[in-house]
Amino acid sequence: MKRVSNVTMRKRLVTVFLFAIVVFGIIAIRLGYVQFVIGDELMEKAKASWSRDIIFEPERGKILDKNGEVLAENVSAPTVRVVPRQIKDPQKVSEALAQILDMPVKEVYQTITKSASIVDIRPEGIKISEEKAEAIQTLGLDGVYIAEDSKRHYPNGDDLSHVLGFAGIDNQGLMGLELYYDEKLSGEEGSLSFFSDAKGKRLPSMADVYDEPVDGNNLKLTIDSRVNTIIERELDIAESKYNPDGALAIAVDPDTGGILAMSSRPNFNPENYQSVDADIYNRNLPIWSTYEPGSTFKIITLAAALEEGMVDLEKDEFNDDGSINVDGTTIHCWKSGGHGHQTYLEVVQNSCNPGFVSLGQELGEDKLFSYIHNFGFGAKTGVDLQGEAKGILFKPEQVGPVELATTSFGQGVSVTPIQQVMAVSAAVNGGYLYQPYVADEWVDSVTGKVLEKTEPVLKDRVISEDTSAEIRKALESVVAKGSGKGAYVDGYRVGGKTGTAQKVGKDGKYMANNHIVSFIGFAPADDPEIVVYVAIDNPKNTIQFGGVVAAPIVGNIIGDSLRALGVEKRTDGLEKDVQWPDKPLVEVPDLRGLSKQEIQQYLMTISIEASGEGDYVIDQAPEPGVKIEEGESIRLFFGEEDVGEENDNSHAH
């Protein structure tokens, strides 16, 4: 038998000892890693396996107009949430809930018996009324909870519907600003966590954990509800009067690019978006629609010719015999027989196609299309709304003499309304092309503190101030003396341009008696504060001219908007050139304080609508000094009090 020496024994002991140290070291390191490195993670996993969460939705941020008027808000709409494992009698609970939620018992039973920690009864149990929520709470059913929730509400109904868009049943943005800025509006979810055993039974010994939801931020827009309400009213009237295939209007601040108002027809109520065709709510026409602009595009040709010093509007002349021949193609003026001998200022006033063709030819392809691109056509404007189109321009290799000629008066190219508005804003604001925008400020919904402010984005300087001033003057004369007289507003200097464009059919040919008629106007003409564009698609039972249909609508919008914005009237504008069948304008006299007998002398030029009892005029509308068409009615309010002496005193100040 072989003996083991002491030396060998000691070596073996040392080896075992070292091995044990290594093993215990590994265990210690592992314990330390578990304890100090991944301990929190394991703890959270343990809690997750034992805890059940009831989610609390945050309040979605409000959407406000520039003056703080609420355009989109939240109203209480509780939601039923069920913990299936806590329900002792599913059949009884199903019958009780089914009766209140007005749904089949079988559907409720199938939902509340699912193998899940928490379930919602969709859609009947989502965003229910306060009355139903109170009825369910009164029953005191185990495992049935009422979670505070809300749904989106739009106080102004279908006004601004395409811009605001809408949110879905889970308060997620689905269209418009609600979708574009969904992340900032949404906020962060909160929850109530309670602990339960493996069978789902609540553990009363462990405290519930509540994480408060973080509400979304409020969004303040550049939209002015006063202007937008006026636009909505005018489009409603146009829709009723002309039964068009569609209509749109947009107003912007030319000095910033901020959108003051925007609307489309047909429109919809954002709270009932499911009831309308997707083609209606997906098409925000001012940014989505593309079509030939017609004569409103002539402003760009005019700007290019003036900036290049190629024309003097008052000295240079053009003879229009009704058509012009371009490379074997005859291009006609809209007026049969033409406008005859005229200055180029009259070419602008008369919207004479051959006259603008001559300007386009003088400019040439490179210069004209350079200005067209510089003014923003052929590219998206970058407005913070989804669904923007960029339009279509001729490719350089496609441009021949005829294409150059037609482009100069707005035919053969495809543009969007928002492009036109921003381009004309640049033409009249001193030459500054801005990026349009709707979101002005982000505001903390709790403190009211401004978190983020949008600064206007200047994209380019496209023309000089001198050129811009000439354009403003020329376009003011269009409204006072030319084809845009329908937009004339007494007391305000209005400039603008008509547009009448044929629509292209599915066969690629122009459609007969089917036009998009438009007008783009701005005021005050010497220092514009608002630019308004209106387009009516295929108006019925009328002459399809922009000057006849769209110009008066823009005039109404501009006049009422400037009054709403507090812009004072002036008397230094151009007088309207009255021609048959226009009626001359007369100034409303001051009739306050006069007796019924004394007002007889004024009945030759005005009509009177009287109300009230008494012998003396105590008030009138419109106010004295306003100009109205001859024969138009003014309203007089009669009373017993003789206010003549009071008015005489007031006139002396």
Notes on the protein architecture:
With 653 residues, this protein is of the alpha+beta class. It folds into four domains: 46 residues; 151 residues, Penicillin-binding protein 2a (Domain 2); 340 residues, DD-peptidase/beta-lactamase superfamily (Beta-lactamase); 68 residues, Trypsin Inhibitor V, Chain A. The chain contains 19 helices and 30 strands. The strands form ten sheets. It has a six-stranded mixed β-sheet with strand order 7-3-2-12-20-21, with no helix packed on it. The longest helix is centred in the N-terminal third of the chain and has 32 residues. It is extended, with a radius of gyration of 36 Å.
CATH architecture of the largest domain: 3-Layer(aba) Sandwich
Count of folded domains: 4
CATH class of the largest domain: Alpha Beta
User: How many whole angstroms does the radius of gyration measure?
Assistant: 36 Å
Through-space gap between termini: 139 Å
Q: Structural class of the secondary structure composition? A: alpha+beta
Main attributes?
653 residues; alpha+beta; Penicillin-binding protein 2a (Domain 2); Beta-lactamase; 4 domains; five-stranded antiparallel sheet; extended; disordered C terminus
